[in-house]
Automatic annotation (TrEMBL):
Positions of the UniProt region annotated as Disordered: 36-79
Transmembrane intervals: 6-26, 96-113, 133-152
UniProt entry keywords in alphabetical sequence: Membrane, Transmembrane, Transmembrane helix
Protein name: Uncharacterized protein
Lineage start: Bacteria, Pseudomonadati, Pseudomonadota, Gammaproteobacteria, Oceanospirillales
Low complexity: bias regions: 67-79
UniProt entry tagged with the keyword Transmembrane helix: yes
Domain of life, per lineage: Bacteria
Compositional bias ranges of the Basic residues kind: 56-66
Length: 161
């Protein structure tokens, strides 16, 4: 009975995760088929309008005069630390928002399976089902990889700010 309960919950969580990924994929495909009336074009039109109005109404501010030493130091600092644009893979990772949720689902599934393994080791035969340890090993590596991917996502978001 415990075996069916554990395997059923694992199957349910895997099906839920795959269904969620499929729904996100369908939403992504549907947003790409909007025939040019997408979010990106509306954002660019709004930001272009705001920028031109702000440029027309902005009053020029007088620049405070700085000493020659401060100007030379600021120029040297700017030359020493050039700000570069993030790589394409970094921008792609920053846009992919589902990595944290997938890592959380995989880690919780792995923890529940480990708890079930611990509980099943105390049942009367004291043996686990044949493929359970292999499944547990695969879930562990999958959750570790997804957690690493989620951490890389957070790093990419920070870099692209």
């Amino acid at each position: 009975m415990t075996y069916f309960l554990v395997m059923g919950s694992l199957a349910l969580s895997v099906l839920f995760t795959l269904g969620w990924a499929l729904s996100r994929l369908l939403r992504w495909v549907a947003s790409g088929l909007s025939l040019g009336v997408g979010k990106g074009s509306a954002r660019s039109r709004r930001s272009a309008g705001r920028g031109s109005r702000a440029a027309k109404t902005a009053k020029p501010k007088p620049k405070p005069r700085a000493s020659a030493k401060a100007a030379a130091k600021a120029g040297a600092t700017a030359k020493a630390k050039p700000v570069g644009e993030p790589w394409r893979i970094t921008r792609h990772l920053a846009e992919w928002r589902s990595s944290t949720a997938l890592a959380l689902v995989a880690a919780l599934t792995y923890l529940v399976a480990r708890l079930a393994e611990h509980g099943m080791s105390y049942r009367p035969p004291h043996t686990l089902p044949s493929g359970f340890s292999t499944l547990l090993l695969g879930l562990g590596w999958l959750s570790a990889g997804l957690i690493l991917l989620a951490l890389l996502h957070r790093l990419a978001v920070w870099r692209c700010r």
